[in-house]
Amino acid sequence: MAAGATAAFDGAVTFSAPESLTRLALLLAVTMTLAGLVLIAGWYTPAGGALLTVADLCRLLAIVPIPALQLLHGGPAIVLRIAVAVALVMLGPGAHSVDAYLFGRREILIPR
Description:
Layout: H1 2-14, H2 23-41, H3 45-60, H4 75-91, H5 98-103
């Protein structure tokens, strides 16, 4: 939820300066907001984590300029959220998520 909340906030704050929005920045803001909301709800968690990873990589590599008012403005903080998003892609949703309710909990069977 922490990665989703910060992503949704960072994406929504980007809309506060509409004069500096390019098409790519607008696409990134929408992607981050939707990925954050998807991760908060726990609905299609691997897809939301993958979208967040791509959006944060674009921010980290400075493909899209970052507005001044951002929660995660520095590079190390963005790298940490990328690591969390990749972990969400690999591990999937938690026990109290929409995905767990719809598809059941994931079980890992270790052979003897």
